[in-house]
Amino acid sequence: MFLTKTVILKIANPDNDLVETMKKYSDGMNYASEIVFDKGKPISAMKLQQEVYPYLRETLKLKSQMSCNIPRQVAGCYKTLKKQKKVKWQKVEFSPSSMTFSYKRDFVIDEDTVKITTINGRKAYSILNYDYAKQYFDGSWKYQASKVVKQRDGNYYFHLCVGKEIPDKELTDASTFMGIDVGMNYLAVASTTDRKCSFFAGGEIKNLRNQYKSMRKRLQSKGTLSAKRMLKYISGKEKRLMRDVNHTISKEIVKFAIEKGISVIGLEDLTGIRDSTLSKVSKKRRHNHSSWAFRQLQTFIEYKAKEVGIITHYVDPSYTSQTCIRCNHISKNNRNRLSFRCEKCDYANNADLIGAMNIEHKTRDYRYILKSQGCLSATQTNA
Description:
Pfam families: Cas12f1-like_TNB, OrfB_IS605
Shape: globular
Structural class: alpha+beta
Oligomer: single chain
Protein name: Transposase, IS605 OrfB family
Order of helices and strands: EHHHEEEEEEEEEEHHEHHHEEEEH
Family: In the N-terminal section; belongs to the transposase 2 family. In the C-terminal section; belongs to the transposase 35 family.
GO molecular function: DNA binding
InterPro entries: Cas12f1-like_TNB, RNA-guided_DNA_endo/Transpos, Transposase
């Protein structure tokens, strides 16, 4: 299994060469973007490179590797756009706030310095190395394509992408399981095989998002240019808030899993669930439902768990909040908002906790199915 991480390091002494290189890089991205947009459909990175490479090298004076990175990024961006069925074909515009570099060809790095290829040659920049980041310079990690990013505060950061092989773990060898139910009342609820549980509250975040919602409503009614700028600012601030919260919650969940000796964390496969359930949600709650970063939280849990050797497995989310964990009776009447009471056996509990229990149960069942199939195959082979 290959584990990847992005380590963010502040560049202490950015200069005009770096700024100008990023500007020319974004100019090249926009030039390539316009060519793809005019064609009305995505094209391969190789074909795009053939069309834009001379301009990038001769007019913009970009280095050869940069001139290869640009068509790959732009082609990939439009392929992703095409896959999003609800998004219309549109021209993608790039700002001079991010630039991709290839390891060794465009940059080399150590604990204190990153040497970057600019339009005026290779230059050394000091980086502020943090205690948590020093582990990624011990020689066990491989450096990959990385980025320089200009943040809203005007500072420049090097987003170093690192990776390394870690031992694979088989789900069939697991013995301890935990299910995670994600939601808006509680950001997450965890339940283990031996019924240890933990609630990760989201009430404060919900209140903050309601405040943002009220602000958006007032600004949208004004419709002025300054109001639109503020709307964009609020949107970015809200996304950063959710990202920080999801990082914190995922860290706490994985810590809880380590403490309980968990081998596998079960999560709901939420692919497509946002669109399929949106019509069932009242208009008043639709914004929260559609914009809540459930999948982001799951992704953070997944990669943090992988780092410490815990497997993650996704299960079918059907009826996890409607199934009685005691008698397996399924009914939408079993759940009433935050409460769960089985109409058949009268078992009662918190509805989100019931969801986490059922996810853990489905994950454990899947392990036994795999185990039994393996045994069957071995028996047939020996026969």
